[in-house]
Amino acid sequence: MARPRTFDPDATLDLAVEQFWRKGYEGLPIQDLCKAMGLNPGSLYGAYGDKRRLFLAAFDRYAGTISKEAIGRVVGAPSGLAGIRAYFEHMIESILDGRRRWGCLVTNAAIEFAARDPEIAAKVQAHFARLEAAFEAALLRAVAAGEARATSLEAAPFLVCVVQGLNVLARTSPSRERLQAIVGTALQSLSVRA
Q1: pLDDT in tens, 26-68
Q2: Rounded-to-integer distance, Cα 167 and Cα 52, Å
Q3: Is 12 exposed, middle or buried (0-12, 13-18, 19+ CB in 10 A)?
Q4: Gap between the Cα atoms of 16 and 131, Å rounded
Q5: Are the CB atoms for 114 and 128 separated by under 8 Å?
Q6: Judging by beta carbons within 10 Å of its beta carbon (0-12, 13-18, 19+), is residue 182 exposed, middle or buried?
Q7: Alpha helices in 29-117 (DSSP H)
Q8: Contact (CB, 8 A) for 13 and 61
Q9: Using one digit for the tens of pLDDT, what is the confidence trace for 143-168?
C-alpha cells in the first residue's frame, strides 16, 4: 500500500513553476528540481509523473494563476484604455521589482519548445489567443467610449507582440525609462489618446 502524501501538491507545484520559469526545462536538472520542491525523486515521480508532465502541470498552473490575473487587469478595468494601461503598468512594475525578472513562463516555453513539442506549442498558442482576445475586447470598449480611433481595433495582435518582446527584454534588467518608452510608443501607435 502506498504511503499518503505528506506535502501540499499545490504549494509544491508553485515551487516547480518558479524553477521552470527561472531556469527553463532543459536548464533544470531533475535533482535541482527535487531539491527546490523539497521532494525526493520517487515522490516527485509518484505525484506528477515524469519531468515533462510536471512541466505541463506547472505551465497550466502559471496560466491559471499569474497569466489569468494579468489578463484580468485588461478586462476588469472600468474602460478599455484603462485596462490596457493597467496591464502594461503592472508588467513594467513586475519587471522592475524582480517578479518578472525571468520574463514569462509562457514566452520562455514558446522559445524553448514551440518548434519541437506540438502539445506545448498548442498551450502557448491558446494563451496568446486569450491575451489577444482580452486586448481586442478592451480596444472595442475603448473605441466605443471614444478613447481610441477605429483604426486601433486591429492592434490586438500587435499588443501581444509587444508583451512578448517585453518578456524577453525583462531578462536584460531594462530601465524604467526604456520600458515606459516602449509601452508609450506602442500606445501612441494605436492612435490612443494620452
Answers
A1: 999 999 999 999 988 888 888 888 899 999 999 999 999 888 8
A2: 23
A3: buried
A4: 24
A5: no
A6: middle
A7: 30-37, 41-48, 51-62, 68-76, 80-97, 105-113
A8: yes
A9: 998 888 887 888 999 999 999 999 99
